[in-house]
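Backbone-to-sequence.
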C-alpha cells in the first residue's frame, strides 16, 4: 500500500478524515498548493501555497513570530505546563537504548516507548492516558547534515503527546485543539501563521490520517491518528486507536528565538562558550542570511554540497567569511551535537564499538576528533560534557548519575582511536585514487577509517551525502532466530509446574506424541530459554534429552521411543542437573550485578548460558578484564553469596514493572508477555527472568570465575562455575598446582644433579678420554655415561646423549677429544627443559671437509629449531625431543657420506 494512494483517498474525503472541530469553529480554509498540489488548512486568506513553497519559509530566522523567547530547557517547561494544565501526565523519558524492542537498537520516536512486540503484533502499553513525554530520540541517517543545515541533529527531543480515545483520553478534535492552543496561547504565535497540512501515516499493518503543523515553513509537529488496519479496498477501525503526536522541542525553541540555527538556542550557553574559545567573530546579520538560504535550498536540492554552494553564492560570502566563520561554526555545532548524543547513549548503557548500535557511537566520536583536528580546535571534551550535563539536567536530572562514566568511556575511546592513527595513516597514504562511496564504506568497515578522517587528511573535500544513510542501513537489522515448527495445532497450553510447586516427580497425560517428541498436559521439565539449558530426566522409561518451548506449549524430546497419546506417564527430573543449572543461573545474576559494581554503569548483560556444570555471562564492557578486576568481581559475587540474601520472585504487569524498576530489568532481553516475572536478589539485582533460581544466595555456596575473554568489541565473556562445580574447580586447581609443584621439584633435581656433575667434569673427563682411547669402536658405558664411537677412513665420530650432563661437559669433552684426534667429530646432545640442545666439535683436519656449523644446522632443523657456528665448533637445538634418533642418524650420514 503506497502512502500516496492513502493520501489521495483520504484527501478526497476531507470532511471525514481531516476536518476537525477547530477548523470549522475558527474558519480555516482548505487550499491546494499551486506548486505541489498538497492540501493544507489556513486562516490566512492570502496564503496560496503549502509551507514548503511559500515566500515566508524560514523568515523566523532573525525575526521570530513570538514575543516570548524560550531556549531548549524553557521550551520544555512551557510545553509541559500547558499539557499538565490540560489533564496530561508528564512521563519521564525512556532510555535511548531501546531494550524493550528486538528490532531497534535506539529509541527513534516517542511512540516507540509504549510499543511492545508480541509475536508479529505490536501492542501499546501506556503508563497514563493522555500523556506527554520529552523523549530523546537518536537518528543517524542524516549525520552529514548535522552542523551544516542548522536544523539536523543526531539526537533530538521529541515532544510526545499520546492519547487513547476512551473515558480518559481524546481523539482528533481535542488533539488539534490542544496543539493549536499550545502554539497560540502558550507560545503566543499568531493564528494566521499556523498551517495544517494533510498527510497520512502507514506502518506495521496499520495506518491513518495525520495533520502536520507548520509555522513559517518550519514543521513543528505531526499529529498522527493511527486508526485503521487492512488495505485500502477493505479496512476497518483498530480496537486500539492511538494519537501519536510528535513535535521537535528543538524547533519550538528555535521558532521563539529566531537564531540563525537551531543549535544556537538548543545547546544553551555551550555554543557561545566554544565560539568564544575558538575566537570566531560571528556576524549575526551574515549568519541569518546564510542559514535562511541553506533552509530554502534544502527544499530544492538533495546534495548537501550543492545546497551549501548555492547558499554561499546567494549570500555572496567571501572566501574569508567561509573559512573564518561558516566552516568553524559547522564544526562546533557538530561537536556539540555529537557529544550530546554520546552523553545520552552512554548514560543509558550503550558503548562505542564496531558492532550493532555501538557502531554509530564510535563513528560519531571519531567525527568529533577529526573535526577538531581539521579545524585546529583545541577543546577540552570533559569540559564540554560537564557543561552539557549541567545544562541538560534541568530536564533530565538522571544524567548527573553517569557524568563520570560518560567521561571515562569517551576517554578510553579517544585513546583507542589515537592508537590506531598510525595504521590509518599508512592506509590513507596508500590510496591511489579518489575513493567511491563503496570504497569509503569498505575503508570504515575493515580499517576504521572514517570519511571525516579522509577529510582531515585532505584526501576528500566533501563527504558524499548518502554515506551515513547507506552505512546505517548496513547496520540496522537484527537477526531473528528461526524456530523449528511442530504440528501443535489445537493443543492447549502446557501447565508449567516449574513456576508453581515444581515437583521433581509427577504424573502427566500425553496430549500428543510424534516422531521422538511428546507434549504433556503439565510438566516440571524446564524448557531451554533465556540462556538456561533444559532439564533432563525420564518420562516413563524414556530418557528426556531436550525440552523446548513453542508459544505456550512445551515439547519434550525423548530417546529410544515415545509413550502413546492419551497415556498417563510418570515423570522424574534429573535433580542433580537441575540443581547445577539453577545455581549457575542465580550466579549469573550475581556476577552481572557484581561486574556492574566493579566496572561501571555501562555493564549490561549481553547474553548468557547456564549449563549443569558451567556457565558464562557476556557483558558489555569496553576492554578486556584485568586480573585485578576479575578478582574483585569474584570477591563481590562471593560476598553476595555469603550474605545469604533471599531471592524473591514476583509477577507484575509489564508496564508496572517498567515504571517501578526501570529498564534495568531487561538484562536478558525483551519479554514478549504482558506479565513479567521479576527475580530480585534483595535490592542488588532486579531482572525480568523466566529461569529457575535458588531460594537464597547461600544456596550457591561458592562462585569461581574460571576464565574471561574479550569476545567482541565492547563485550567480555566471564566463564564461571558455582556450587559443587566451584568446589571441584578449586580442588582441581589445588591438584594442578600440586602437580606443577612436583614437576618443578623434578626439574630442580635435574638441575642440582647437573651442577654436581659439572663439578666432577674436571676429574671425570681425563678418565673418559683415557677409556675412550682404549676402547676405540662401539658403544661403551664408562661410569654413568654412554658413548658411541665409530671410526672409518672418512672420519672418526663420537657422540653421547646423556641428560645428566650439560653444555659445560660436552664442550670440555669435545674440545679435548678433538685436540687428541684431528680426524674426530664429536657430537653431544642433551635435554634442557622444553628444549633439546646439540653441540658439535670437529678436529683440525676433519673440519676442512665436515663443517661443524653445517652439521649443527642440519641437526637443529630436524629437531625443529635452528643453530650454527664455525667449522670447528657449533651449537644449536630444537624442541622436538622425539626426533633425537633421527638427528643422530642424520649427523652420521653427513659425516660418513
Ligand atoms: Zn507545496
Ligand atoms: Zn535470569
Amino acid at each position: 500500500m503506497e502512502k500516496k494512494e492513502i493520501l489521495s483517498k483520504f484527501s478526497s474525503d476531507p470532511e471525514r478524515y481531516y476536518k476537525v472541530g477547530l477548523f470549522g469553529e475558527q474558519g480555516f480554509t482548505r487550499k491546494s498548493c499551486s506548486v505541489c498540489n498538497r492540501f493544507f488548512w489556513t486562516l490566512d486568506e492570502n496564503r496560496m501555497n503549502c509551507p514548503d513553497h511559500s515566500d515566508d519559509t524560514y523568515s523566523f530566522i532573525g525575526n521570530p513570530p513570538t514575543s516570548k523567547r524560550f531556549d531548549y530547557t524553557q521550551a520544555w517547561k512551557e510545553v509541559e505546563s500547558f499539557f499538565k494544565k490540560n489533564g496530561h501526565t508528564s512521563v519521564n523519558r525512556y532510555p535511548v537504548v531501546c531494550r524493550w524492542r528486538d528490532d531497534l537498537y535506539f529509541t527513534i520516536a516517542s511512540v516507540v516507548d509504549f510499543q511492545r512486540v508480541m509475536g508479529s503484533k505490536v501492542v501499546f502499553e501506556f503508563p497514563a492516558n493522555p500523556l506527554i513525554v520529552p523523549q530523546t530520540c537518536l537518528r543517524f541517517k542524516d549525520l552529514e547534515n548535522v552542523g551544516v543545515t542548522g536544523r539536523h541533529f543526531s539526537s533530538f527531543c521529541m515532544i510526545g503527546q499520546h492519547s487513547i480515545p476512551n473515558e480518559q483520553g481524546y481523539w482528533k478534535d481535542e488533539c488539534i485543539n490542544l496543539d493549536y492552543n499550545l502554539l497560540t496561547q502558550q507560545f503566543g504565535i499568531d493564528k494566521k501563521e499556523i498551517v495544517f497540512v494533510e498527510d497520512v501515516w502507514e506502518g506495521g499493518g496499520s495506518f491513518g490520517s495525520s495533520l502536520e503543523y507548520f509555522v513559517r515553513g518550519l514543521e513543528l509537529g505531526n499529529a498522527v491518528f493511527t486508526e485503521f488496519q487492512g488495505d485500502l479496498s477493505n479496512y476497518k477501525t483498530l480496537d486500539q486507536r492511538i494519537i501519536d503526536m510528535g513535535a521537535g522541542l528543538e524547533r519550538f525553541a528555535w521558532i521563539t528565538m529566531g537564531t540563525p540555527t537551531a543549535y544556537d538556542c538548543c545547546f544553551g550557553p555551550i555554543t557561545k562558550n566554544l565560539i568564544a574559545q575558538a575566537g570566531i567573530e560571528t556576524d549575526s546579520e551574515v549568519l541569518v542570511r546564510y542559514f535562511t538560504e541553506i533552509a530554502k535550498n534544502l527544499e530544492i536540492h538533495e546534495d548537501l554540497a550543492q545546497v551549501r554552494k548555492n547558499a554561499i553564492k546567494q549570500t555572496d560570502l567571501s572566501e574569508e567569511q567561509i573559512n573564518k566563520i561558516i566552516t568553524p561554526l559547522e564544526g562546533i555545532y557538530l561537536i556539540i551535537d555529537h557529544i550530546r548524543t554520546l552523553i545520552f547513549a552512554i548514560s543509558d548503557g550503550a558503548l562505542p564499538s564496531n558492532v550493532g548500535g555501538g557502531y554509530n557511537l564510535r563513528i560519531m566520536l571519531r567525527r568529533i576528533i577529526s573535526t577538531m583536528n581539521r579545524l585546529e580546535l583545541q577543546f577540552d571534551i570533559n569540559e564540554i560534557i560537564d557543561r552539557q550535563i549541567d545544562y541538560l539536567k534541568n530536564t533530565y536530572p538522571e544524567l548527573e548519575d553517569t557524568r563520570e562514566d560518560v567521561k571515562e568511556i569517551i576517554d578510553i575511546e579517544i585513546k583507542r582511536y589515537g592508537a590506531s592513527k598510525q595504521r590509518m595513516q599508512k592506509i590513507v597514504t596508500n590510496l591511489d585514487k579518489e575513493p567511491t562511496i563503496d570504497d569509503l564504506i569498505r575503508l570504515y568497515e575493515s580499517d576504521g577509517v572514517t570519511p571525516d578522517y579522509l577529510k582531515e587528511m585532505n584526501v576528500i573535500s566533501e563527504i558524499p551525502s548518502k554515506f551515513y544513510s547507506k552505512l546505517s542501513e548496513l547496520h540496522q537489522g537484527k537477526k531473528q532466530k528461526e524456530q523449528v515448527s511442530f504440528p501443535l495445532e489445537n493443543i492447549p497450553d502446557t501447565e508449567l509446574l516449574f513456576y508453581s510447586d515444581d515437583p521433581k516427580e509427577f504424573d502427566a497425560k500425553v496430549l500428543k506424541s510424534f516422531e521422538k517428541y511428546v507434549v504433556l498436559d503439565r510438566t516440571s521439565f524446564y524448557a531451554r530459554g533465556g540462556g538456561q539449558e533444559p532439564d533432563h530426566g525420564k518420562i516413563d522409561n524414556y530418557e528426556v534429552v531436550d525440552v523446548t518451548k513453542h508459544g505456550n506449549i512445551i515439547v519434550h524430546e525423548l530417546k529410544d521411543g515415545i509413550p502413546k497419546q492419551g497415556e498417563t506417564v510418570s515423570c522424574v527430573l534429573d535433580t542433580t542437573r537441575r540443581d547445577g543449572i539453577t545455581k549457575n543461573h542465580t550466579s549469573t545474576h550475581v556476577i552481572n550485578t557484581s561486574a556492574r559494581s566493579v566496572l561501571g554503569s555501562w555493564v549490561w548483560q549481553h547474553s548468557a548460558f547456564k549449563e549443569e556444570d558451567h556457565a558464562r555471562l557476556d557483558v558489555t564492557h569496553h576492554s578486556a578484564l584485568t586480573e585485578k578486576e576479575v578478582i574483585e568481581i569474584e570477591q563481590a559475587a562471593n560476598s553476595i553469596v555469603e550474605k545469604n540474601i533471599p531471592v524473591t520472585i514476583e509477577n507484575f504487569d509489564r508496564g508496572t514493572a517498567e515504571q517501578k524498576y526501570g529498564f534495568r530489568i531487561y538484562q536478558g532481553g525483551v519479554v514478549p508477555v504482558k506479565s513479567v516475572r521479576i527475580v530480585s536478589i534483595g535490592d542488588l539485582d532486579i531482572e525480568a527472568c523466566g529461569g529457575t533460581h535458588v531460594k537464597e544466595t547461600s544456596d550457591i555456596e561458592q562462585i569461581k570465575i574460571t576464565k574471561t575473554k574479550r569476545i567482541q568489541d565492547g563485550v567480555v565473556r566471564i566463564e564461571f562455575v558455582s556450587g559443587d562445580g566451584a568446589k571441584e574447580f578449586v580442588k582441581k586447581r589445588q591438584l594442578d598446582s600440586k602437580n606443577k609443584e612436583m614437576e618443578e621439584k623434578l626439574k630442580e633435581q635435574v638441575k642440582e644433579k647437573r651442577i654436581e656433575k659439572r663439578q666432577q667434569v674436571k676429574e671425570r673427563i681425563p678418565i673418559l678420554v683415557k677409556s675412550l682411547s682404549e676402547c676405540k669402536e662401539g658403544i661403551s658405558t664408562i661410569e654413568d655415561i654412554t658413548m658411541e664411537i665409530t671410526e672409518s677412513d672418512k672420519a672418526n665420530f663420537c657422540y653421547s646423549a646423556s641428560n645428566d650432563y650439560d653444555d659445560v661437559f660436552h664442550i670440555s669433552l669435545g674440545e679435548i677429544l678433538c685436540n687428541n684426534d684431528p680426524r674426530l667429530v664429536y657430537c653431544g646432545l642433551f635435554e634442557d627443559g622444553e628444549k633439546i640442545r646439540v653441540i658439535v666439535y670437529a678436529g683440525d683436519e676433519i673440519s676442512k671437509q665436515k663443517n661443524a656449523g653445517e652439521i649443527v644446522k642440519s641437526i637443529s632443523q630436524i629437531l625443529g629449531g635452528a643453530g650454527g657456528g664455525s667449522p670447528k665448533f657449533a651449537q644449536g637445538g630444537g624442541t622436538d625431543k622425539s626426533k633425537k634418533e633421527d638427528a643422530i642418524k642424520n649427523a652420521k650420514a653427513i659425516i660418513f657420506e
